[in-house]
Design goal:
It is a single chain. This protein is mainly beta. It has 4 domains: 164 residues, 3-Layer(aba) Sandwich (Beta-lactamase); 80 residues; 89 residues, Lipocalin (Beta Barrel), CATH 2.40.128; 212 residues, outer membrane lipoprotein receptor (LolB), chain A. The protein has 10 helices and 39 strands. The strands form 7 sheets. Strands 32-31-30-29-28-27-39-38-37-36-35-34-33 form a 13-stranded antiparallel β-sheet. An 8-stranded antiparallel β-sheet has the order 22-21-20-19-26-25-24-23, with no helix packed on it.
Length: 616
């Protein structure tokens, strides 16, 4: 959105449009004679490459035409060549100078590489550039359907490169920086051929952080190089350890791992370092020894609440350590308290708590400490440790088996209501037509700002959005869409999973819940929180594979305000949270059952795309 707004503003200030500004002030003076701001602007005698995307089902590439995104041109519609981009890199490395021609003043160019946002301890963001403060790399990559790119520069060495690929995503985008550095500068760490014995590190480690819930991370020996298989993502090769014992990912210097050893010298755990945080993963089969007797921790367990923040964290025990489960975030483990009673978080030392006690030494709350500020959370309930619960005993409390038949008897359901995209502030109406047989159609109308529309009929799926061409959906994308349906958890959902295990007891927005871990085939596991009283699914956390990015991203689905509709309990509000799209809240005012709808009525009739308002 910021790129689009900036491009539009640049055209307005210039008295023309973004398309003209880019051509007259960038392409022409730099000599980029084969670059265009729109696919429609490419002359007929110049070929535009075909696009491809990896198909998980066939394990091969399929044709995926480059997407036309003229409506949001400044965010990624430029088409160029390696030769033209080479001139662009020369212009950047010349700080606005190409050859003997000054296109941009040196002071103006300095603004481009000046850090504006701190992303991580060794990474910032300037005007459109990722700035690596540890090694001086300036870079940015991008992806559209059918194409991806990576531009990176080593300014101190007057070196830069561009990688253009006609696939939607590739690990080469990030890996290319290390490849070029090693080949041209010879200062990259090489892992292959190492004399380090890798066998002590090889094995399985259990992760409980972010989107991961008892998930297995596997360390492998990949042809003499250590590699980490992250569940739901990919196998990441690691560089040799530095002087601090950290093995950095070859793809990025922003993520590293190290290994912990026990008193006998055996590897007992793994630490992962990312974005200034440290995540601890014990080795599978090794139970961490309590640093404080568990019965001593009992007095702290329970739910706490702060009215101003409207947050109800729960103090629990995880990995034999005191931990705080923060709703919609993760479970944070803590070190034992220091001499003044402050517990420091093991993930980041910026998070600290101190428990509050009354005159009888009973715990009544805790203060969240951040610098000189503190936020008080009052204790609202205590928790007693239970070790007899299982997923089977929990699910047996609710009669899930007949729910499929009850849901099917309702026929087609029509949900009508409103949606808000919180990141952008856009509001619109939403209509969903769905049935228990997997047919699904949704229509989110944002008025003049566009629309998002989907339909699914068996293996057939289609996406219609205002700013891109129609797109047929693959099986993974269809599954991603259906999981967010308001009836996705109304039937006998446990039957769809191969294995379900009990994780913990918790509280979510005032509801006592059990959190279960559900696994089906090769799909990423899901953490599912169900209401203890009703069996309603309130929260689902997992990961979705994004074909165009070639990776998986975490998501959270929250179902609220259940009401009974013709014998079936349905949520009247669905919130979806993802790193890519932010927060989308859909609230339904009306639910109709028994709606007569043929397959044709489920199929979308594509709308005419919005007129091009930036690039023509």
């Amino acid at each position: 959105m910021q790129y689009v707004a900036s491009g539009f503003a640049a055209g307005e200030v210039a008295g023309s449009d973004w398309n003209t500004v880019i051509k007259e002030r960038l392409f022409t003076p730099i000599g980029m004679e084969h670059s265009y701001t729109s696919k429609k602007g490419v002359p007929e005698d110049q070929a535009v490459t075909l696009g491809y995307q990896w198909d998980e089902e066939t394990e091969g590439y399929k044709t995926y035409p480059l997407r036309t995104i003229d409506n949001i041109g400044p965010a990624g519609s430029i088409l160029s060549t390696a030769g033209d981009m080479g001139r662009y890199i020369r212009f950047q490395l010349g700080r606005g100078l190409i050859g003997d021609k000054r296109v941009l003043s040196n002071s103006q160019h300095e603004e481009l590489w000046k850090e504006r946002i701190k992303i991580a301890p060794s990474m910032g963001y300037g005007f459109g550039w990722m700035l690596h403060t540890d090694d001086g790399v300036v870079e940015h990559g991008g992806n559209v359907r059918g194409g991806c790119a990576q531009v990176a520069m080593f300014p101190e060495d007057d070196l830069g490169f561009v990688l253009l690929m006609n696939v939607s995503a590739s690990i080469l985008q990030a890996e290319s920086i290390s490849i070029v550095r090693e080949a041209m500068l010879g200062n990259a760490q090489a892992n292959g051929g190492s004399t380090i014995d890798l066998s002590p590190f090889v094995g399985e480690y259990i992760g409980n952080f972010g989107p991961f819930s008892n998930d297995t991370f596997t360390v492998q020996d990949k042809n003499g190089a250590l590699a980490l298989d992250v569940p739901g993502q990919m196998l990441y090769e690691l560089k040799l350890p530095d002087e601090d014992g950290k093995w950095y990912f070859t793809l990025t210097n922003q993520i590293a791992v190290s290994f912990d050893r026990d008193d006998a010298g055996a590897v007992a755990g793994l630490k992962m370092y990312q974005s200034g945080m440290t995540f601890e993963l014990p080795r599978k089969g090794i139970a961490l020894q309590p640093e404080i007797p568990l019965d001593t921790l009992q007095k702290y367990l329970g739910t706490y609440y702060n009215e101003e923040k409207d947050v109800s964290p729960t103090v629990v025990i995880q990995n034999n350590r005191l931990a705080v489960d923060v709703p919609d975030q993760m479970v944070f483990e803590f070190f034992p308290p220091n001499e003044v009673g402050v517990w420091v978080c093991r993930v980041t030392d910026k998070m600290k708590i101190r428990f509050v006690k009354d005159k009888n030494q009973k715990v009544t709350g805790f203060s969240f400490l951040e610098g000189e500020n503190s936020i008080l959370f009052d204790r609202v309930s205590a928790t007693v440790i239970k070790d007899t619960l299982t997923a089977q005993s929990i699910l047996a409390k609710f009669d899930f088996e007949p729910r499929d038949a009850t849901l099917a008897a309702l026929g087609c359901l029509q949900f009508s209501g409103n949606s808000i995209l919180k990141q952008s502030g856009l509001r619109g109406t939403v209509e969903i037509l769905v049935d228990a047989n997997g047919r699904f159609k949704s229509d989110l109308d944002l008025d003049t700002y566009g629309w998002f529309r989907f339909h699914v009929l068996g293996e057939e799926g289609l996406m219609d959005m205002a700013f891109i061409e129609l797109q047929e959906l693959g099986s993974t994308e269809i599954k991603n869409i259906q999981i967010g349906s308001p009836i996705a958890w109304a039937g006998n959902w446990p039957a769809a999973y191969d294995a379900i295990t009990f994780v913990e007891e918790d509280v979510f927005e005032g509801h006592d819940v059990w959190t279960l871990r559900a696994k089906s085939g090769d799909d990423p596991p899901k953490a599912i929180a169900i209401d203890k009283k009703t069996g309603d699914v309130l929260v689902v956390k997992s990961q979705n594979y994004i074909p165009e990015m070639g990776t998986s991203l975490p998501y959270t689905l929250i179902y609220r305000n259940y009401k009974e509709v013709d014998g079936v309990r349905l949520p009247m509000e669905v919130t979806e949270r993802t790193e890519m799209t932010g927060i989308n809240v859909s609230t339904f005012d009306l639910v109709e059952t028994g709606v007569l709808a043929t397959d044709d009525q489920f199929r979308l009739i594509p709308r005419e795309r919005l007129p091009i308002w930036i690039a023509e």
